[in-house]
Specification:
There is one protein chain. Helices cover 28% and strands 25% of the residues. The chain is of the alpha/beta class. Helix 3 packs parallel to helix 5. The radius of gyration is 20 Å and the shape is globular.
Length: 274
């Protein structure tokens, strides 16, 4: 009987160790996913323009002030960096850490930010502290605003997470240069039909955490905020009516504290001249 119990304990210990190593890898082994987008709307000078997208960090600690993440971003050699929401987590908010990370990446390239639902769930004091801190660190906050990258002929448009419907986007587009590529930053991908009904070209989104747990050998996620079980929009490229949306699986976690078959992701988009 003792011999059997020792054998069971050994098997349990081995399974526990393997599971712990697997979860550590799945939740902390950063993956860089490269996408290529081709268009005739950019300038000749912008051929090969590179965008790094960071989404859903949720205050995840990746070295001091995100040192490990910053290093990976730097490897991509981006022309701009975009933060597509949930930089902080409303359940365990660490604004100083988020600002420390942003200060480091503004040394790499210009940084553009739009809010996610977790920023909107902050208290007024924390929200103002975050937004003011971002602006002090030269992060460009693009909530319901647009900026033109003149040399590249690219307009970067940002939507506040409370304003994802098409009427808000259309009102912003009325004040946006009609020429050139229109790049939309919007946190939540389930509004794809709304975005697609407007005169934009490329959308960068996040929010779905890659479906949190992914079914092996498929492109299916299990669950996502606001899309529930077996969600449609969790990662990768979606195309419709000549428009494209790229969804990042994100980096951190929130309510569900772990990922399975769903490594944290840095998205790197290279825009090529047709």
């Amino acid at each position: 009987m003792k011999r059997i119990n020792k054998k069971k304990l050994l098997i349990f210990t081995i399974i526990f160790i393997i599971t712990a190593i697997f979860l550590e890898f799945e939740n902390n082994a950063l993956q860089i996913t490269d996408y290529s987008y081709t268009t005739d709307k950019i300038s000749e000078e912008a051929d090969g323009f590179k965008i790094v997208q960071i989404s859903d960090l949720h205050n995840k600690k990746m070295g001091k002030n995100g040192k490990r993440l910053v290093s990976k971003i730097s490897e991509c050699n981006p022309d701009i960096i975009v933060l597509t929401g949930d930089l902080v987590d409303s359940n365990h908010t660490d604004i100083e850490y988020a600002l420390g990370f942003c200060k480091k990446i503004t040394d790499i390239a210009p940084v553009y930010f739009v809010t996610g639902n977790h920023e909107k769930w902050l208290s007024d004091d924390d929200y103002n502290k975050l937004i003011n801190g971002l602006e002090e660190n030269e992060v460009i906050v693009l909530d319901n605003k647009t900026v033109k990258l003149n040399d590249e002929n690219i307009s970067v448009i940002g939507l506040d997470d409370d304003s994802l419907e098409s009427f808000t986007l259309n009102s912003i587009l009325e004040k946006t240069d009609e020429e050139g590529l229109r790049l939309l930053l919007a946190h939540e991908p389930q509004f794809w039909d709304e975005y697609n009904s407007c005169d934009i070209d490329l959308v960068l989104s996040g929010h779905a955490h890659g479906g949190q747990m992914r079914i092996p050998f498929t492109h299916k996620g299990i669950i996502a905020p606001d899309q529930y079980f077996l969600p449609e929009y969790t990662e990768g490229v979606f195309e419709k009516n000549g428009k494209t949306m790229i969804i990042s699986r994100g980096i951190g976690n929130s309510v569900i504290p772990f990922r399975i078959f769903n490594r944290p992701e840095i998205v790197c988009v290279t825009i090529n001249k047709k």
